[in-house]
């Protein structure tokens, strides 16, 4: 556990540049069934394996435990070390009054509940476990998902409509602006007072979709209630743009050309804060929010990092047994459990749109 902790701190510490941050967010978008901490651990250890020549590509593709690979007819190549991650340890608890938190008692192994008791499993701790990338295995070919190639300037079919519906569900009205001049030089603006989201109409479809995902990130992360007094604008912009990157990447839309310099410039404005802690907190919020958004959108063509053909919902041998849907719910829960936002009235104190309580990018 100490070694895992050290590895995690090292991995987080490397995320100080916009390029590294974008790479990890893009990787996390394809591995949504893993926690952000485990995503960092896998990414860092795979990079180390690549530098030592043990794997052919710098970024992992599919990752699973040894027994999970065996169920797909694949076996770990001799001499290939696994990537150490955190695995949940669960125990069964029983209660005759489930609504009373104090009534739950832990069941011993093999112990049966008493008549009338409700039984639930709960994570009590974590332990080290190992996973391997598909490039570290051999055997039956992995069934590949179809990956439609996007034409230049086009957005994935249905993505705009899905994001627009998510904006409407949160009580915001979506509208177009003729150009950046109408938005004070921004591509999109969210007005938290008027509950409106406005996106430039003179951009390609792909750029409009990413802009809408960015503004939806602001709304879903409650940036109107959290800032500027309760939230540094630099953190808010990094969070929103990272959400947009994860959503777009999940649908095969590459936004790194814009995201890398954008995230790099805004992250450098956060003063008097430890970059490691800022990135860690931002990563968890971004991942949880992006998962909640993706869960309401059409199925992304890239999947969630689980090897095609493997049913993780029924598998009991791997280190992380939750199905992608359950993992998404856990990610959303993390956002819900964050400290309550600062509810003070907001005013514009950072460079940007002149209208109070509005944010643009």
- State the share of residues found in helices, binned by percent: 25-40%
Shape: globular
- The rounded Rg comes to 22 Å
How many β-strand stretches?
A: 10
Strand order across the largest sheet: 1-5-3-4
Largest sheet: 4 strands, antiparallel
Poorly predicted residue ranges: 147-152, 315-361
**Total of DSSP H or I helical runs spanning 4+ residues:** 11
Helix/strand-derived category reads alpha+beta
* Assembly classification: single chain
Q: H/E order of the elements?
A: HHHEHEEEEEHEEEHHHHHHE
Mean pLDDT reading: 77
Binned strand content: 15-25%
End-to-end separation? 41 Å
Task: Walk me through this protein's architecture.
The protein is an alpha+beta fold. 39% of the residues lie in helices and 16% in strands. The chain has helices at residues 2-13, 18-30, 36-51, 66-71, 159-169, 205-220, 223-226, 233-250, 256-267, 275-294, 324-336, and strands at residues 63-64, 74-76, 83-95, 105-106, 118-133, 137-139, 173-177, 188-191, 196-200, 358-360. A hairpin with a 4-residue loop joins strand 8 (188-191) and strand 9. The radius of gyration is 22 Å and the shape is globular. The two termini are 41 Å apart. The model is unreliable at 147-152 and 315-361 (pLDDT under 50).
């Amino acid at each position: 556990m100490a070694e895992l902790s050290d590895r995690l701190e090292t991995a987080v510490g490397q995320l100080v540049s916009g390029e590294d941050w974008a790479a990890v967010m893009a990787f996390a978008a394809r591995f949504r069934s893993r926690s952000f901490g485990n995503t960092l651990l896998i990414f860092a250890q795979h990079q180390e394996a690549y530098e030592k020549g043990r794997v052919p590509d710098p970024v992992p593709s599919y990752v699973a435990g040894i027994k999970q690979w065996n169920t797909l007819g694949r076996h770990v190549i001799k001499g290939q070390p696994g990537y150490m991650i955190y695995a949940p340890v669960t125990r069964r608890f029983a209660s005759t009054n489930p609504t009373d938190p104090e009534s739950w008692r832990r069941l011993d192994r093999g112990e049966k509940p008493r008549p009338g008791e409700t039984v639930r499993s709960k994570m009590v701790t974590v332990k080290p476990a190992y996973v391997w990338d598909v490039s570290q295995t051999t055997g039956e070919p992995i069934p590949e998902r179809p990956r439609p190639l996007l034409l230049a300037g086009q957005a994935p079919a249905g993505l705009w409509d899905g994001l627009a519906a998510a904006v409407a569900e949160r009580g915001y009205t979506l509208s177009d602006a003729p150009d950046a001049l109408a938005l004070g030089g921004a591509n999109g603006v969210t007005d938290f007072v008027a509950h409106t989201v406005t996106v430039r109409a003179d951009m390609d479809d792909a750029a409009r979709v990413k802009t809408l995902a960015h503004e939806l990130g602001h709304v879903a992360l409650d940036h109107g209630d959290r800032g500027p007094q309760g939230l540094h604008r630099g953190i808010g912009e990094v969070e929103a743009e990272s959400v947009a990157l994860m959503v777009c990447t999940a649908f095969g839309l590459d936004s790194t050309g814009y995201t890398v310099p954008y995230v790099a410039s805004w992250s450098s404005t956060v003063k008097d804060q430890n970059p490691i802690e800022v990135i860690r907190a931002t990563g968890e919020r971004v991942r949880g929010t992006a998962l909640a958004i993706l869960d309401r959108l059409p199925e992304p063509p890239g999947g969630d990092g689980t090897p095609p053909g493997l049913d993780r919902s029924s598998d009991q041998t791997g280190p992380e047994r939750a199905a992608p849907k359950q993992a998404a719910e856990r990610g959303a829960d993390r956002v819900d459990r964050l400290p309550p936002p600062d509810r003070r009235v907001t005013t514009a104190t950072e460079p940007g749109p002149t209208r109070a309580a509005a944010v643009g990018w």
